[in-house]
Every structure is written in structure tokens, then in C-alpha cells.
């Protein structure tokens, strides 16, 4: 583990050296990649390509269909399709808070692997040999904007669209509290490069798949409140996924429905991933730090958006997670 006390500017310099000195990179992000993970992966791939470096982009899970328009997103390999004999010494990890979130991709790391860790999660555990971590960044894409400007590159519509997509999705369409003046300034710069903001907003924020709507119908039938209606949750079963012919990407945004209800401070989605194993997504209106709640169950994330995976019976998991959410709300009220 490298010195985590470097300034942000020093971290940028160290990351540039890592990229300048290495070659044949593996670019990875977290399992079940979202918009920031995919756009950050493709942005790093674009940078390495522009520098004449050899690289491979890989994830345990498939790239969601709606992000396939990004630069060479279709080239992101699945870990299950990787050549088991090929091992990478230089790895660039983006938007991934801890080593376990790589999933099966870590099997492609060489024994003497050197990992560069680029991330914005406050729960990042500073794994790797070189870190570029800024928890107050709205997205990993915001950090990559700074890193890209460390190199002699020409900003094109392709790379600008990658960075803009990460900003757009991780700020909820520039609506979340992480939408800083700097984020809007960067977005303005990217628009001047030819980014088609209206088309991206339509595709990434407005359009819904039929499977998503079918899941929403089923999930809303499970909508439940705690006693004082400050915590609200819903659940999706494997049977729901099968009946809706849905993919993981069709779940995106479901957790916002309980969170957006008037008076609700914490919204939660419980998604069955296999028998007696549930992925828990948490969203906060600001009164509770849901990253702390997620960490108690082995997960992590941000103060307002976090997640974890928990084993057990659904009713027991709900009881435990809701209890921690209520504690988080009370702890904040007592401050």
C-alpha cells in the first residue's frame, strides 16, 4: 500500500508516472458496472490508446446495453471469456472501493501485479500500489478529467462523452447534492467538445425498458414503511426477474421510488441474487449516512448512496438493515 497522505496534485503526478512507465494494462471496475464505472473504464482505455499503450478492458459482468454507445464499450471483455493463461502485471482499477469488488477479474492479475486505484468512494480502503482518490469528487469521471489533462491529449467528442456520462449518471442528471459548481464547469467544457447533452439525458435518464416497468409493478406491491414512515423499502425476487425477463441493468433506479416518497429519509431495495443471498441498495435524503449502514454489513459507498450483500432469510435481513437505518437517523438527530 502506497503513502495515502499525498496531496491530490501529488497523486495525479504519481498516477501519470504509473501510466507513462507501464504497458499492457488491464483496466477494470466493480461488478455490476454502472454509468460511472463503464464511462471511466472506456475513458482510461481511450487514454491508453491515445498514448500508444497496449491494454484490455474487462469486467466480471456485461456492459449494460444503454452504455454500449460509449467509445469501444463493446470491447469490454467478460472475465468468464478471458484467456486463463494471460496474466496482467499492470492493472488500472476505476470506481472500485475495495479489492473484493473486482470479482472474478482478479484471477487475471499476475503474482507481482501493480494496481493503480482511481476512485471517489469515501469507503475506499486504499488498496493497490498507487492511489488517486478524491472522496469529494462527484464521480470517478471527475477525477479522470483531471488526470486526462495531465497528458498532452486533444479533447474529442468521444472522450468528452465518456467523462460527461460518468458525471451525468453519478449526479442523477445533475440533481444530487454532489453537483458542485466545479462539476457544472467541467460539464460546460465537455459540451464545448460536442457532447450531445439532450440525447444523453434522453437515453440514460428518461428511457425505460419494458422489463424495468414490469419489475417496478412487482416491486411496488412489496412497498413497506417502518413505524414512523421515515424508512421505506421494496424487494425483487429471482422469480420477479425471470417473469419480467429482466437483467441487472433493469433494476437501475428502482431504489429511488421508496426514497422519493414524502417524509422518507432512507429508501432501500432488497434484490435476491441467489437463494438466501440479497443485494441491498440504500439511498439517503441526508439525515443518515448510508455508507456507514452498508459497512456494518460488509459493504460501502457514499453518504447518500451505498450498498452491501447479505446472506440470510429476507425477513431477517430486512429487520436488521431497517434497524440500522433507524439507528443512523437517530444518531444524526442527536448531533
Strand content: 15-25%
Number of domains: 2
N→C terminal distance: 35 Å
The named CATH superfamily of the largest domain: inorganic pyrophosphatase (n-terminal core)
Could you describe the largest sheet, including whether it forms a barrel?
6 strands, parallel
Keywords:
six-stranded mixed β-sheet; 335 residues; inorganic pyrophosphatase (n-terminal core); Diaminopimelate Epimerase, Chain A, domain 1; six-stranded parallel β-sheet; 2 domains
What does this structure look like?
The protein is built from 11 helices and 12 strands. Helix content is 36%, strand content 20%. The mean pLDDT is 95. Strand 1, helix 2 and strand 2 (55-59) form a beta-alpha-beta unit. Strands 3-2-1-4-5-6 form a 6-stranded parallel beta sheet. Helix 2 packs parallel to helix 3. The protein has 2 domains: 8-153, inorganic pyrophosphatase (n-terminal core), CATH 3.90.1640.10; 210-334, Diaminopimelate Epimerase, Chain A, domain 1 (Roll).
Amino acid at each position: 500500500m502506497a503513502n495515502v497522505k499525498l496531496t491530490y496534485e501529488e497523486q495525479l503526478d504519481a498516477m501519470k508516472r504509473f501510466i507513462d512507465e507501464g504497458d499492457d494494462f488491464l483496466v477494470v471496475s466493480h461488478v455490476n458496472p454502472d454509468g460511472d464505472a463503464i464511462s471511466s473504464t472506456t475513458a482510461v482505455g481511450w487514454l491508453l490508446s491515445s498514448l500508444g499503450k497496449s491494454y484490455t478492458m474487462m469486467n466480471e459482468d456485461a456492459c449494460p446495453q444503454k452504455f454500449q454507445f460509449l467509445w469501444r464499450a463493446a470491447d469490454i471483455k467478460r472475465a468468464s471469456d478471458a484467456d486463463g493463461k494471460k496474466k496482467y502485471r499492470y492493472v488500472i482499477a476505476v470506481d472500485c472501493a475495495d479489492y473484493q469488488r473486482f470479482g472474478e477479474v482478479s484471477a487475471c492479475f499476475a503474482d507481482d501485479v501493480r494496481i493503480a486505484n482511481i476512485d471517489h468512494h469515501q469507503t475506499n480502503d486504499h488498496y493497490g500500489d498507487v492511489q488517486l482518490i478524491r472522496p469529494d469528487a462527484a464521480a470517478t469521471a471527475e477525477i479522470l478529467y483531471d488526470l486526462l489533462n495531465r497528458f498532452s491529449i486533444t479533447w474529442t467528442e468521444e472522450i468528452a462523452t465518456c467523462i460527461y456520462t460518468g458525471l451525468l449518471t453519478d449526479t442523477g442528471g445533475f440533481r444530487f447534492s454532489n453537483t458542485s459548481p466545479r462539476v457544472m464547469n467541467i460539464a460546460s467544457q465537455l459540451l464545448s467538445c460536442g457532447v450531445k447533452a439532450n440525447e444523453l439525458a434522453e437515453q440514460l435518464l428518461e428511457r425505460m425498458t419494458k422489463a424495468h416497468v414490469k419489475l417496478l409493478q412487482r416491486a411496488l406491491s412489496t412497498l413497506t414503511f417502518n413505524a414512523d414512515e421515515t424508512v421505506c423499502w421494496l424487494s425483487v425476487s429471482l422469480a420477479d426477474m425471470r417473469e419480467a425477463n429482466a437483467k441487472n441493468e433493469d433494476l437501475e433506479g428502482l431504489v429511488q421510488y421508496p426514497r422519493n416518497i414524502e417524509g422518507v429519509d432512507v429508501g432501500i431495495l432488497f434484490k435476491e441474487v441467489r437463494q438466501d443471498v440479497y443485494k441491498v441498495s440504500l439511498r439517503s435524503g441526508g439525515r443518515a449516512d448510508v455508507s456507514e449502514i452498508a459497512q456494518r454489513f460488509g459493504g460501502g459507498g457514499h453518504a447518500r448512496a451505498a450498498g452491501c450483500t447479505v446472506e440470510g432469510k429476507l425477513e431477517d435481513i430486512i429487520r436488521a438493515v431497517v434497524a440500522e437505518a433507524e439507528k443512523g437517523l437517530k444518531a444524526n438527530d442527536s448531533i
